[in-house]
Amino acid sequence: MGAYILRRLLLMIPTIVGIMAISFAVIQFAPGGPVERVIADLTGQGDSAADRLSGGGDLVSQQGISNESGSSYRGAQGLDPDLVAKLEKQFGFDKPPLTRFLEMMWNYIRFDFGESFFRNTSVIDLIIEKMPVSISLGVWILIFSYMISIPLGIKKAVKDGSTFDIWTSGVIIIGYAVPSFLFGILLIVLFAGGSFFDWFPLRGLKSDNFADLSWWQKILDYIWHLVLPLISLSLAAFATTTLLTKNSFIDEIKKQYVTTARAKGLNERQVLYGHVFRNAMLIVIAGFPGAFISAFFTGSLLIENIFSLDGLGRLGYLAVVNRDYPIVFATLYIFSLMGLLVGLVSDLIYTLIDPRIDFERRDV
């Protein structure tokens, strides 16, 4: 097992370098980078550059008018070439792309993610600041979905082909097919003061008077704000885990050891939970880390924006919109690294649950 873990760790290096290299290359061809964005602001085609640019006021005060700037940036005509050069230097675009990529990877290896282009703070501080919201959503989504999905999946497996199985499958398929953000918008329209009821808050995880509430009122206030985002995010996870549990139990129920257990006089409950449960839940439990990462990173982006939750998903979205590349690449690096590590953890959980599984005999 030690050799397998070492191979997986070593393979993570070229994998994450490849992910970052492809993303970095795509960004080079994407129009509207941070320099162009500031130029658009300075020429009156965007929001105030001074509000987003570190030291922007000093740069703006130095701008001049030139008939021919000689800049390759679209919209740079009429700006002092020295100003454009200072912008390029400030954002690090005065260096060749390969040099910038190598410097970025060297810094990321040491977990030095630099500072945001437009927020005047370090990227790692921003990520740490936003992480509690996303972790909170991820944890509650898993707890909520697993508490419902596993019992429901077991019952569907036991009653396979029955009326109960058919109509619950229809509900699950609809829940899986409807995107979480679309369902979130529907919940807002119905229950957050959209067109019908005003039962739940529209944004955030805390009320304005949260600090003045007692401890039990804070808990209730937190739950009150969490209801709609949690329901929206749980749909896909709920459907996937339910069907996975059902199929896993059906496969195990059909095996010979179940028939033998029944022949020995055990009742269905003893057979189901004494023999089938451990083997059937192997794939569900082993997939728990991956499910958490999925709920933590991928599922929250649109929901956090719809419900104005100040988490990592919203941070990444705003970074892309504002071309804040340090945040974009740092979050991509962290998410990719955690995804690779979680894949390894899932394999190790398999071996802990079922020692018969031996990854040493398999090719990585």
UniProtKB/TrEMBL annotation:
Any one of the GO CC terms: plasma membrane
TM annotation in the entry: 9-30, 135-154, 166-192, 222-245, 280-307, 327-353
Organism per entry: Metarhizobium album
GO biological process assignments: microcin transport; transmembrane transport
Family annotation (PROSITE patterns): ABC_TM1
Stretches assigned to the ABC transmembrane type-1 domain: 131-346
Swiss-Prot/TrEMBL keywords: Cell membrane, Membrane, Transmembrane, Transmembrane helix, Transport
Membrane topology: Multi-pass membrane protein
Assigned protein family: Belongs to the binding-protein-dependent transport system permease family.
Compartment(s) where it occurs, according to its Swiss-Prot or TrEMBL record: Cell membrane
Gene3D superfamilies: MetI-like
Coiled-coil annotated spans: none
Name of this protein: Microcin ABC transporter permease
